[in-house]
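Hey team,

Filing this mostly as a record. A colleague (T.K.) asked me to run one chain through the structure pipeline before their review meeting, and I want the input and output archived in the tracker in case anyone asks later how it was produced. No errors, nothing strange. Just documentation.

Input sequence:
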Amino acid sequence: MKLLTALVLCAAAVAAQDKAQDKNQDAAPKLGSIAGAVTAGGGGPPMKDVEIYVNRNTPQAKMAVTDQQGRYVIRDVAPGQLRISANAPDASGRAGFGPNANRLVTLAPGQELTGVDFRLVIQGRISGKVVDQNNEPVVGIAVFLVAREYSHGALRAVFAGAGNTDDQGAYRLERVPPGRAYTVLATRARRGLPAISDSPLDPELRLPAVVPTYYPNARSIDGAEALVLRPGEHREGIDIHLTRSAAFCLDGVLEGTSGPAALRFNIAETQPASGASGEGAFYTATPGGTSGPDGKVRICDLHPGEYELSVSEFTPGGMGGAAQFGATIVTIGDRDVAGARVGLRPRIPVSGEVVFDGPAPEPPLTAKLRLSVQAITRTERGSTQADIPSEFTFEGGLLMDAYGLDIGGVPAGVYIKDVTYGDRGMMYQPLRVGSAMGNAGLRVILGRDGGTIGTQVADKDGNPVADCTVVILPATSPNEAVFAAAVKTGKTNQAGAWSSPTLAPGKYFVLATSGTVDRSPETTGKLWKARNRGEEVEIAPLGKVSVTLSPKSLD
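Output structure:
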């Protein structure tokens, strides 16, 4: 009898445990799957060995690789809004270095979502020769792909790729994104410089200086011919006729914290420069060397133009950026320049506060703002986090330089109303560390009276358009640089829907396009002209606006 009782109790316990497990499984969201195919854009063939990621670089990341038919399936995916990325190998087979694309999709619990397809845009190639005034090939010349882009309050020219001429003067630029205008620049390739050049004192005895030359033979980017490639295009015959000029010298003194000193120096044209453009960034070393203990330098073989002369000092055995840095602008005209001086400047403490324009919310927000700075033309960077509201500081300070400021982690229902440094606003301007008076710091002002725009994109037959770019344009802007910075974009999900982040109250134009949207002057001009073809909306304080759009060309 006791044995029978024990068996009954055991069976009851097992049944209760199974019931509890079933209940927990019912409470957990059911996992789903995502499937699709990858092909080359423009009706190209299926693409194999493409890496497909769900929420890449997160703890919930999932991954699959396309087969010979370009198909993929990712299983056991948690439901919700997901970012799907496709990363193809390059021509040499290096995984993830070829064309790529992203899509946003919404996965319901237990859903087996199909048709999440990618048509990857194949990058192009530019090739040609660099020749001299006698049409003879020039060996060992650096050739750069140059992008023009609005960033941080100005139109800047930025390196976007590089190559070198071979023993026949031929060069090749790989991985050129199609659909965007670029120029090609040829210039002398040099890295190491002596502190004191042995160039003759008499300018008449010097060899001519190489002038950076844009295709086909322009001395400035304003006279260059812009190139726009089609997907997968190989543009040949982009030959550059290198120009030369009289050569000049720059004499100066480099100063440490206690006067002239042996310091590392670099010199380069102010533009084009290293930095970010499009979805990436390109950095290249500039010519430089080390001065003697007297700090004197004599830099020669310079063509007329504007240069940045910089000095830096690194902590012995230290890691990371320079401990001290300084820079000055030098203009070379029609003669040598003497008496230039540039000195080291220590890192400057940079702190600030995050505040609300008006009362703070109750209960307090638990989110944190992420504040990141990146030197506009160098790799120097810094970051910090801040409660909302609170004070913050960049640990270790920042070098005296111009930085781009990126603020992430802005919670829903909040928008960045203004950013100030000292007594001046820098919402769409660079952060020039050291330009504020006294101990004035950064101030990030958040607004809580903003609203949102919900969009639905459909074709002429009313079918939803997935992976379409939605563009929100400010109705007014003081100039094109601010207009380009204020433009907001997003991609529709598989249902053709996208909702904006919280925006400041005011008037906007909203349009949908399948065209390329970037901050180049060409695209910015198209967006400015196309804004009146978009839907005009007015966001009231705390308002929500819904619009239905059909894709339009920017041309």
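Quick notes for T.K.: The chain is about 10% helix and 45% strand. The first strand starts at residue 32 and ends at 40.
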